[in-house]
Specification:
This is ABC transporter ATP-binding protein. One of its GO terms (molecular function) is ATP binding. Belongs to the ABC transporter superfamily. It is a single chain. This protein is α/β, with parallel strands linked by helices and 233 residues long. The chain has one domain: Rossmann fold, CATH 3.40.50. It contains ten helices and ten strands. The strands form two sheets. The protein has a six-stranded mixed sheet with strand order 6-7-8-3-9-10, with helices on both faces. The chain has a four-stranded antiparallel sheet with strand order 2-1-4-5, covered by helices on one side. It is globular. The structure holds adenosine-5'-triphosphate (ATP). Adenosine-5'-triphosphate (ATP) binds next to β2 and α1. Adenosine-5'-triphosphate binds next to β2 and α1.
């Protein structure tokens, strides 16, 4: 289990996280919802240790993670799939996937390639294509595939639906569900609350750097405030 308790993060004078507490139980999909600037991406960056909290605790299975470097966090299987995909545009699909496994030395790498292709057959068809020439949806598939090559226990997904054609959003979210069924926990940051709550077990709503609401996804979907603010009515 991954757990944050009362985490505060500052960027200079900007108090971006104001006491965030959340947990991701093993095997679950957890949504992190909220409007622009609520602190969603900062929460993911804090978990992957790209930003340092001023106070609070961060534990995985009861062990503190606050002294761990980002690369140690990756080795523990916490893999961050960043906002806007950030694929390496001049590298091929195959090279991008290999970069995802950069820290690994185990023998499962080859079978993980096949696994990525079973989730995303389009990537296999485009193995030698430069990533910058893929469509937005295909780049998102590649970014998730690259994260899977890091052998995640917990996948941190930042806005996988952003700027993607609606039919591909559905396809990608179906695959996120499959990835989870195969044993990977997921923390899903989304502005598209409809699709996020449809596939997640539990959800948190961030507002101004703190958790304003939390609950089972089903309950959140029926919550009047969530419906009004994030589900279009
Ligand atoms: P969005 O959906 O727009 O990406 P978000 O919920 O992910 O929003 P964050 O990106 O975490 O929000 O930003 C939280 C707050 O921290 C915002 O007020 C933002 O302006 C501020 N912030 C984020 N990154 C930095 C930075 N590098 N330097 C200064 N302030 C930052």
């Amino acid at each position: 289990m991954l757990q944050l308790t009362d985490v505060h993060v500052y960027y200079g004078h900007v108090h971006a996280l104001r006491g965030v507490s959340l947990k991701i139980d093993d095997g679950k999909i957890v949504s992190l919802l909220g409007g622009n600037g609520a602190g969603k991406s900062t929460t993911l960056k804090m978990i992957s240790r790209l930003v340092q909290p001023k106070s609070g605790s961060y534990q995985i299975d009861g062990k503190t993670m606050l002294k761990e470097s980002p690369s140690r966090i990756v080795k523990r299987g916490i893999i961050h799939c960043p906002e806007n995909r950030r694929v390496f545009p001049t590298f091929t699909v195959e090279e991008n996937l290999k970069i995802g496994a950069y820290k690994r030395k185990d023998k499962k790498i080859k079978s993980d390639f096949e696994k990525v292709f079973s989730y995303f057959p389009r990537l296999k068809e485009r193995l030698n294509q430069k990533a910058g020439t893929l469509s937005g949806g295909e780049q998102q598939m590649l970014a998730i595939g690259r994260s899977l090559m890091g052998d995640p226990n917990v996948l941190l997904l930042d806005e996988p639906s952003l700027g993607i054609a609606p039919n591909l959003v559905i396809e990608i979210f179906e695959i996120i569900k499959e990835i989870n069924k195969d044993g990977t926990s997921v923390l899903l940051v989304e502005q598209n609350a409809n699709v996020a709550l449809a596939i997640s077990d539990y959800g948190y709503v961030l507002e101004n750097g703190h958790v304003a609401l939390e609950g089972n996804s089903k309950n959140l979907k029926n919550n009047d405030e969530v419906r009004r603010l994030y589900l279009g009515g």
